[in-house]
């Protein structure tokens, strides 16, 4: 019998969280999709793995047996995949770097140039990720390092070095009455509809909605998007406003969208991240050092 590792990962998430809702947020999938995956695994194995109740999802005896064995199996498989992909990168002399939005802003070209100087014959392959993938492929082993916005789900399982901090601004339709202002207080936006990331991104979505910085006021969602172009279109078309890094005003300027400074909301932080298994990888370490030096500026 062949079992898709995706089903096993879903099983582990539900077993550890004890809740379909929390597991779905952790995996960045919808709850109905996760329910289907659990049932599919139960059908393949021919046994019930969970008892379901209002209190949550409790493991049955077969479920407990599977929960003891699967994490190590998945860890071994992840190690095999990561090593295979790393070997391919080394053979091709390519460093795969995931990123979100504007990566490390204006420092990005300097980082790549310095890496090329340190590693002649190597090249950096930049891979932009959707907002539904806040680790930009790093958690799945699809990239060797990533330039990310903190905080992101799964951050505790990775190595993270903070590079820079910048204020969060608001992006709003250029015809919005608040766009005529030079700056805004965040509380003035609490009643505005917001353009949000997909619900399955959980804490990532909440951070960019500043859900914990609204004094308990609920968030109004005007539109949901997963890509920068769709995000900009939703704002320009008047479906809502959105918090964004200050640098978005430079990297994502477009007609119909205005950016304004916002006080009363925490800043955005950019970091370089890599997997713990690459602590001893000299190529990854060189890239991390290039990131740190580029944002530090001339000495």
UniProtKB/TrEMBL annotation:
Residues 3-60 form the HTH lysR-type domain. One of its GO terms (molecular function) is DNA binding. GO terms for cellular component: protein-DNA complex. Pfam families: HTH_1, LysR_substrate. Keywords: DNA-binding, Transcription, Transcription regulation. Belongs to the LysR transcriptional regulatory family. This is LysR family transcriptional regulator. It comes from Streptomyces spongiicola. The lineage of its organism: Bacteria, Bacillati, Actinomycetota, Actinomycetes, Kitasatosporales.
């Amino acid at each position: 019998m062949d079992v898709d590792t995706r089903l096993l990962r879903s099983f582990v998430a539900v077993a550890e969280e004890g809740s379909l809702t929390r597991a779905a947020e952790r995996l960045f999938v919808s709850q109905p999709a996760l329910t289907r995956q659990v049932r599919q695994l139960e059908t393949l194995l021919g046994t019930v793995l969970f008892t379901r109740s209002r209190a949550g999802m409790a493991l049955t005896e077969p479920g407990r047996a599977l929960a003891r064995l699967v994490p190590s199996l998945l860890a071994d498989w992840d190690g095999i995949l990561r090593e295979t992909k790393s070997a391919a990168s080394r053979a091709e002399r390519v460093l795969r770097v995931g990123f979100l939005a504007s990566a490390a802003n204006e420092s990005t070209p300097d980082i790549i140039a310095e890496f090329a100087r340190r590693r002649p014959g190597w090249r950096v392959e930049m891979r932009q990720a959707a907002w539904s993938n806040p680790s930009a492929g790093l958690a799945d082993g699809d990239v060797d390092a990533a330039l990310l916005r903190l905080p992101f789900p799964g951050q505790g399982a990775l190595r993270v070095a903070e590079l820079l901090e910048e204020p969060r601004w608001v992006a709003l339709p250029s015809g919005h009455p608040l766009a005529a202002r030079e700056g805004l207080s965040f509380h003035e936006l609490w009643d505005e509809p917001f353009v949000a990331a997909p619900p399955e991104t959980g804490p990532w979505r909440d951070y960019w909605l500043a859900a914990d910085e609204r004094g308990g006021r609920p968030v109004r969602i005007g539109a949901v998007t997963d890509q920068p172009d769709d995000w900009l279109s939703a704002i320009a078309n008047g479906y809502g406003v959105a918090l964004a890094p200050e640098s978005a005003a430079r990297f994502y300027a477009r007609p119909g969208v205005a950016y304004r400074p916002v006080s009363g909301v925490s800043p955005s932080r950019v970091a370089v991240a890599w997997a713990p298994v690459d602590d001893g990888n000299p190529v990854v370490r060189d890239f991390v050092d290039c990131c740190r030096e580029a944002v530090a500026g001339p000495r």
